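Much of what follows relies on a compact textual record of a protein's fold. Here is one such record, which you should read through line by line:
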Amino acid sequence: MMRVVLENMLLFLLPTLIYAIYMLAMREPGQDAGGGTRRSTQVLDDAPLLWLFAAGALLVIVTLIAFGSISGGKPGQHYVPSVLKDGRVEPGHIE
């Protein structure tokens, strides 16, 4: 369960992380190098946070819909879990 929560949090924050990395990479060469005019912690001060959060929420929703609609079997089918048979693991499948 914790993995699912962490994956969704990462998807939600991904646009903001990409924006911050881009802004840090595109700053002026002398800026923030030992007494520069702008600190790296100020990258998100001028960020369009509303749009970044909306993009993150949309990314989470699209991912949940995509994985929710393409995984699993048809109605009436059931999952047969993997079993150990003759020293070999036979993978699970849907019948």
